[in-house]
Amino acid sequence: MKEYAYFPGCSLEKLAIGYHQSALETTKKLGVKLRELDDWNCCGSTTYFHIDELLAYTLTARNLAIAEKTGLDVVAPCSACFKNMFFTQSHLKKDPDLAEHINFALEEDGLQFSGDLRIQHLLEMFTQDIGAEEIKSKVTNPLEGVRIAPYYGCQILRPRRDHDSAESLENPQYFEELLTAIGATPVDYPLKTRCCGGSLIISSRVAALSMVRNLLQSAVEREAALIATACPMCQVNLECYQQAVNQEFGTNFEVPILYFTQLVGLALGIPEKKLGIGKELVSAMPVLAR
């Protein structure tokens, strides 16, 4: 059984508990074990890097140092957590002086950051390590006829790897390949890598709601039955603020939002309750019942 160090992040403890549940259930079904990091801490999200950059790097480096002790590759289901971990490792490897300062702080915890770690988003692990064909071979309940908009969001693709091409960053296809593997129909979704607004809802509500409206409208125009996401913040903005979008712009959106792990779990025959499905503000049950 392939094993990974698993950094759930703060959102998956409560707000995105369905993502956490479905991540554990689907990986187990696929012969993968996620070992949650011991004594992990908040990654600082995006905001903290604008308040105290040194401490923000230290927070993330601490998680990386804990992961290094496991000797395993690390995966993060949250796009912000993944981005922070990836960029922290990259930055510290290029700045030995900063790494030395941070390692001095980490000594208090008996930790040491070396930068020798493979970091992936959970969606990448599903599509690159497990692979669409392997997942397809285990599907018992294909989601035939379900049209799904694959929403990558803006942060998964920000860390550019050496093998990335402009085309793979501007028009990625691996989410679509995963949805096809579970029997669903991925729709052509031109806004799939656009930002959902993130925490902009706090400082510029109308601008953030406008961004969410555009994402929902594009999915509706492509006749998507639901939107699949891979990030807790994206899920919150797209689902929890639908009513606010409708009030602000006079629309009537009722678009279900599910995590990709929940959809994969359904296709693998895992019961809905185990996947955290059924607690959505915009129910996905009418779509799934078809």
Mean pLDDT: 93
**CATH topology label of the largest domain:** Rossmann fold
Assign the CATH architecture of the largest domain. Answer: 3-Layer(aba) Sandwich
Strand order of the largest sheet: 2-1-3-4
Rough outline? globular
State the CATH class of the largest domain.
Alpha Beta
Strand content bin: 5-15%
Spatial gap, N to C terminus: 35 Å
Number of helices: 13
Instruction: Report the order of strands and helices.
Output: EHEHEHHEHEHHEHHEHHEHH
Report the sheet with the most strands, covering strand number, pairing sense and barrel closure: 4 strands, parallel
Tally of DSSP β-strands: 8
Pick out the low-confidence regions.
none
Notes on the protein architecture:
- It is a single chain.
- The relative contact order is 0.15.
- The strands form 2 sheets. The protein has a 4-stranded parallel sheet with strand order 2-1-3-4. Strands 6-5-7-8 form a 4-stranded parallel sheet, sandwiched between helices.
- The protein has 2 domains: 119 residues, Glutathione S-transferase Yfyf (Class Pi), Chain A, domain 2 (Up-down Bundle); 150 residues, Rossmann fold (3-Layer(aba) Sandwich), CATH 3.40.50.
- The chain is an alpha/beta fold and 290 residues long.
Write the layout of secondary structure elements.
Layout: E1 2-6, H1 17-29, E2 32-36, H2 53-70, E3 74-76, H3 79-94, H4 96-106, E4 119-121, H5 122-137, E5 147-151, H6 166-170, H7 174-181, E6 185-186, H8 200-203, H9 205-221, E7 226-229, H10 232-240, H11 242-249, E8 257-259, H12 260-267, H13 285-289
Parallel strand pairs: 1-2, 1-3, 3-4, 5-6, 5-7, 7-8
